[in-house]
Write a structure and sequence with these properties.
single chain; mainly alpha; Membrane-bound Lytic Murein Transglycosylase D, Chain A; 3 domains; two-stranded antiparallel sheet; 54% helix; 7% strand
Length: 196
């Protein structure tokens, strides 16, 4: 490839020179020497550029590796951030996982106890044994089915939602198609719960 480019370059310079008036032998030799010098410089430049291309390819590969590492770290941080948003429940005497899950401020559904167990496996070795004063993570829900007595601020205050009643507008904004009046919600309505 390098030779073809160099040869093409030389021919482009030589052909117009021959099309002109006849040269003396010394003039022709001088032109040939000039062209050889230009060819040598062009080959040196090609070699330099090839080296730069190889360096750039190496840089691109390094950047791809770095990008992959950063994407992995981002996914890890997103998971950590998600866990930071989860509610917290302090175990009291007489608690067990399904009892906690069935509490209104948690899931009001005892069958969801495995969610609590999975989120706290680092602490809970046996799902039948939990101890007072443990702080358990309560994973958040992506959807919520309204039960009698609920209002948006109460839903937002639940440990499985936001643990913060003041965040009720987020639920309202995400479900405007289902909520005509923010002060009127009905049992069995199912709301999307947005999380950052």
């Amino acid at each position: 490839m390098k030779k073809i480019i160099a040869l093409t370059f030389v021919l482009c310079l030589v052909i117009p020179a021959f099309a002109q008036e006849k040269l003396t032998e010394e003039q022709a030799q001088a032109q040939i020497d000039t062209l050889k010098q230009q060819l040598s410089e062009a080959e040196a430049k090609i070699t330099e550029l090839q080296s730069q291309v190889e360096n750039l390819k190496s840089d691109v590969n390094n950047l791809k590796t770095r990008k992959s590492e950063l994407e992995s770290k981002l996914a890890e941080l997103q998971e950590t951030w998600k866990r930071c948003q989860w509610g917290r429940y302090k175990v009291v005497e007489g608690d067990w996982l399904s009892k906690i899950a069935s509490m209104r401020e948690v899931y009001h559904d005892g069958s969801k106890w495995p969610m609590i167990y999975e989120a706290n496996k680092d602490k809970i070795k046996n799902p039948n044994l939990i101890y007072p004063d443990w702080i358990l993570l309560i994973p958040t829900l992506d959807t919520y089915k309204v039960i009698p007595g609920d209002c948006l601020s109460l839903i937002a205050s639940y440990l499985s939602i936001y643990s913060n009643a003041k965040r009720w507008p987020e639920i309202y904004e995400a479900n405007k198609d289902k909520i005509k009046d923010k002060d009127l919600i009905y049992p069995n309505q199912e709301f999307t719960i947005p999380h950052d």
